[in-house]
Amino acid sequence: MKGVLPLLVLRVLSKKPNYGYQILAELRFLSKGVLDYNDGALYPVLYQLEREGYVESYTESADGRLRRFYQLTEKGHTHHKRAEEEWVAFVKSVQLVLNKPSL
Amino acid sequence: LNNQIQNDGATKLAIWLKVATQGLPPLMKTRITTEIADHFAEVYAEYVANGFNNQAAETAALQQLGEAETFRRSYYTAHFSQRRYRIGFWASLSWFGLLLIGYFGHGTFADLESHHQLLWQTVMDITSASLLLTIVHVTIVLLRERYEIRLPRLVQAFFATSILLVVLGCMFAIWPTWINPEVRLLPFQFSRLGFGAALTVSSYLAWLALHRGGYGRGRWLALLALALGTVLFLDALVAINVIHVNSYYIRRYYIPFMAPTLLSASLLVMVLLLLNFRVLGSARAERHT
């Protein structure tokens, strides 16, 4: 589950720039509460994505608070597309194995 | 922090943040502290809105953050410092291994034909230079990013004493042969003194490595590297003392090149290990307090 978090974060950010709390809220909402990561797990992932140049951050005032927003870079969009394709291919192949009646 | 958060909650969060950000560069520390504190305040407000009382909301918000130590480890992985450290660590050890091969294999390689010897020397030099550059790069990056490198006072004293001993040793070992050959006994006496001092301090360092350095296997690796570093250091001290030995190789190569190289290798290994102690050992210290 942990290794999927960067991909999920990229997915959430591909829609619009967002900040930590909202990214997690979005993940919980989209997965109907199934993906309930520790809040602390998100930030190292965000820092790593930023360090690798997939996302960039900026501070902006929202709801009366100064928040750090994250948004995908061009490189991040490309990486996200590729990672998503790889993931879909991976899930399909796992399903193929799991659905084999001989197993 | 949200004004509603009581002092108790703020203190708990402060402790969490202290653990989570320990050893990180100051700029990153500030950023994480601000971001996590804001996040905490939002989660707290959400719990309060859902009918939790203040204390329960604080506890739940803190639990939701997860383990501070896990956060710190993830952060270090994310920030590549662990990777950098590992690169530096293994580069140091490999370099040290290379030096040992060169040192002990000297007699064997001396018997090789000249063109084989040249080939061997070139390979050794290129590998050694690459490893040295890697080590220097890692050290510079760590220093530039202002990772907290706080050496215990006794270790600082050790480094200071070592440098002083070597500088004095070089002076004592070199000038008598040039100026007054009668004073040749001095380096020997000095070397014994240096040997004793280095042995005493290295015992302390070994104790430090065992009791305060890293975790599990890392601790033993650290101890091993420390011991090897100490041996190299002692070797360098002894090497300074053999200047009056009538050997062309020792005069021409060992003294001017090998001794300073071995010494810098041992110092680099130690510095990198101590960086590790700072990063990994702090979590262990926290568990005790």
Summary tags:
A: 103 residues; alpha+beta; three-stranded antiparallel sheet; 4 helices; 3 strands; B: 289 residues; mainly alpha; 11 helices; disordered C terminus
Topology:
The complex is a heterodimer of chains A (103) and B (289).
Chain A: H1 5-15, E1 18-19, H2 20-30, H3 39-51, E2 55-62, E3 65-72, H4 74-98
Antiparallel strand pairs in A: 1-3, 2-3
Helix pairs in contact in A: 1-4
Chain B: H1 7-21, H2 26-49, H3 54-65, H4 68-78, H5 81-104, H6 106-110, H7 114-144, H8 153-178, H9 185-212, H10 216-241, H11 248-288
Helix pairs in contact in B: 1-3, 1-4, 2-3, 5-7, 5-11, 8-9, 8-10, 9-10, 10-11
Descriptive notes:
Chain A is an alpha+beta fold. Chain A is 58% helix and 17% strand. Chain A is built from 4 helices and 3 strands, in the order αβααββα. Chain A has helices spanning 5-15, 20-30, 39-51, 74-98; strands at 18-19, 55-62, 65-72. Chain A has a 3-stranded antiparallel β-sheet. In chain A, helix 1 (5-15) crosses helix 4. Chain A is globular. Chain B has 289 residues and is mainly alpha-helical. Chain B contains 11 helices and no strands. Chain B has helices at residues 7-21, 26-49, 54-65, 68-78, 81-104, 106-110, 114-144, 153-178, 185-212, 216-241, 248-288. In chain B, helix 2 crosses helix 3 (54-65). The longest helix of chain B has 41 residues, at 248-288. Chain B is rod-shaped. In chain B, 33% of the residues are buried. Mean pLDDT of chain B is 61; it is low at 147-194, 211-218 and 279-289. The A-B interface holds A 20-21, 38-41, 43-45, 47-48, 51, 65, 67-68 and B 20, 31-32, 34-36, 38-39, 42-43, 64-68, 70-71, 74-75, 77-80.
